UniProtKB/TrEMBL annotation, chain B:
GO terms for molecular function: hydro-lyase activity. Keywords: Lyase. Pfam families: Fumerase_C. This is Hydro-lyase, Fe-S type, tartrate/fumarate subfamily, beta subunit. SUPFAM superfamilies: FumA C-terminal domain-like. It comes from Desulforudis audaxviator (strain MP104C). It comes from the Bacteria. InterPro entries: Fe-S_hydro-lyase_TtdB-typ_cat (IPR004647), Fe-S_hydroAse_TtdB_cat_sf (IPR036660).
Length: 280, 186
């Protein structure tokens, strides 16, 4: 059985927090460049140009892409043949977030209580999602999630009779009413099926998928493309100033559900769709 | 596309009257920063009739909570935050002479009406362009509520800060007009 020291997890998590905030992923840069070519609105083109320039400055100067460096959402896949030594794995992830936000000059935006709202001062705790998988590796993905886009996300328990039309209508309503607020062009994560919390998690996980890739199921891939075209007809455009590129991509994930349910979750992400992954 | 209009702050009534939704501008001069907690404190003072710690007359408030500055730097990333959260406080600040706001996202109908009444303007900056916008900031200092940390009221000296007029005093609304112009199924 392979062993992994907790300190390695702390280091990796800390580094991922910093890099996710400074470095726009190559697939996202490519998508924004493509969007700038495609955009017909001069103001929209100007906005996309500013975003690409912003990315160049951020990586060069190690300054966050956005001042809202988010609450850290951390996905951890633990190989079942891996033994963690030197402490608690969960504590290691939490410590990694604290160190990453402190050392990286990242904004601490987490409050300890949703009603009393006192800042924890170190951006902990993160929101952690665990998955046990075959093998002896540990995979960590850090997704700093800012409030601008997260606040515009939505979930609805549809009736099965509402079917695909109901799903499309809900996605359209969510993106349309969000308008400029979530910093378009967006990546739209859609979770369909499961239960209430499963749909929300599917939608968030869908945001991790590289831009330009499609759902492996052909008809779902086609649905993603149809939704992308359909949403871009809204005219919201970059930063909501009008234009043809409102979404960079729609990523859809499904899961079996109950005969009487059709949960749909729409998790919006801004143009930066920040995330960074490491395998230990 | 025409060149952006260069504007020196503070704003005057005459200048505000000339601005139209969709105008691109570059702002230079002094901005005040304020977010949710600072707005709450300012409005509480106004309601009590107590003088404010900052003079809002002719000023522009930038809705921003910067990331921490690295040593030797003036400021961290400093892009606009969602303006709609401040809507309930805004008319009271406009009544104190505030002439402009910079943020991103929708304003409420009450704010849009108050802009006309008090002759003020709402600018949008590019959300998420925090690194780029930090380069327009030449100086930053806390002028009120240091206990609020990133939410303290700062005075920023900016040069050529890029923004777009979203809501003007003539009823123009770039979010509505821009979307209508580019929507395929109207």
């Amino acid at each position: 059985m392979r062993t992994l020291d907790c300190e390695k997890v702390v280091e990796a998590t800390s580094r991922l927090c910093r890099e996710a905030n400074y470095v726009l992923e190559p697939d996202v840069v490519a998508a924004l460049e493509g969007a700038r070519q495609e955009e017909v609105s001069p103001t929209g083109k100007d906005v996309l140009g500013q975003l690409l320039e912003n990315a160049r400055i951020a990586v060069r100067e190690e300054i966050p892409l956005c001042q809202d460096t988010g609450i850290a959402v951390v996905f951890v896949e633990v190989g079942q043949d891996l033994r963690i030594v030197g402490g608690s794995l969960e504590e290691a992830v939490v410590r990694g977030v604290r160190e990453g936000y402190e050392q990286g000059y990242l904004r601490k935006s987490v409050v300890a209580d949703p009603l009393n709202r006192v800042n924890t001062g170190d951006n902990s705790p993160p929101v952690i999602h665990w998955r046990l998988v075959p093998g002896d590796r540990l995979k960590i993905s850090v997704m700093p999630k800012g409030a601008g886009s997260e606040n515009m996300s939505a979930l609805k328990m549809l009736k099965p009779a509402e079917g695909l039309d109901g799903v499309k209508r809900f996605i359209l309503e969510t993106v349309s009413s969000a308008g400029p607020n979530p910093c378009p062009p967006l990546v739209v994560g859609v979770g369909l099926g499961g239960t209430m919390e499963k749909a929300a998690l599917l939608a968030k996980e869908a945001l991790l998928r590289p831009l330009g890739t499609r759902n492996p199921v052909a008809e779902l891939a086609e649905l993603e493309e149809n939704l992308r075209v359909f949403l871009n007809e809204l005219g919201i455009g970059p930063m909501g100033l009008g234009g043809r590129v409102t979404v960079l991509a729609v990523h859809l994930s499904t899961y079996p559900t109950h005969i009487a349910m059709l949960p749909v979750a729409v998790n919006l992400n801004c143009h930066a769709v920040r995330h960074k992954t490491a395998v230990l | 596309m025409s060149d952006p209009r260069r504007i020196t702050l503070p704003l005057t009534d005459e200048l505000v009257a000339e601005l139209r939704a969709g105008d691109r501008v570059r702002l230079s001069g002094t901005l005040l920063t304020a977010r949710d907690a600072a707005h709450k404190k300012l409005v509480a003072l106004i309601e009590q009739g107590v003088p404010l710690p900052v003079d809002l007359n002719g000023q522009v408030v930038y809705y921003v909570g910067p990331s921490p500055a690295r040593p030797g730097r003036v400021i961290g990333a400093c892009g606009p935050t969602t303006a709609g959260r401040l809507d309930s406080y805004t008319p009271a600040l406009l009544a104190q002479g505030l002439k402009g706001m910079i943020g991103k996202g929708f304003r409420s109908p009450e704010v849009i009406t108050a802009l006309k009444e008090y002759r003020a303007v709402y600018f949008g900056a590019v959300g998420g362009a925090g690194a780029l916008l930090s380069r327009c900031v030449q100086a930053a200092r806390v002028v009120a509520y240091p206990e609020l940390g990133p939410e303290a009221v700062h005075e920023l000296i900016v040069v050529d800060f890029p923004a777009v007029v979203i809501n003007d005093i003539h009823g123009g609304d770039l979010y509505r007009e821009g979307r209508r112009q580019y929507a395929v199924n109207k």
